[in-house]
Amino acid sequence: MKLYRVKLKGLSGSGIDTAYGKPYVVADNPTDALNKVLDYLNKEDIGFRGDREMDTIELLAEEGDYPKCRVQLFIYCDKPEYEVEISKVIHEEQQRKHRISERHD
Question: What is the pTM of this model?
Fold first, then answer.
């Protein structure tokens, strides 16, 4: 998993209490990070279409001993019920990646 900072063209001005246009997102890749943000904004009907356009996506940190971005990400949850769910999501993502790599071999 990786931590991204997504910046949108709008939704981060001084008149907004929550900076929806500058969220931090945990995802496997920049496309998934942007899609998570856009899905949320669309579902909650926040902002106009032009406000939701991507400006930049920056990789801030990633899991692992030697991350390419040189900053480690540690995901920790002290609530057992969430740990099970997080482990399940990570396992499903690993299986998905394995199936994709098998198709390309």
Answer: 0.70
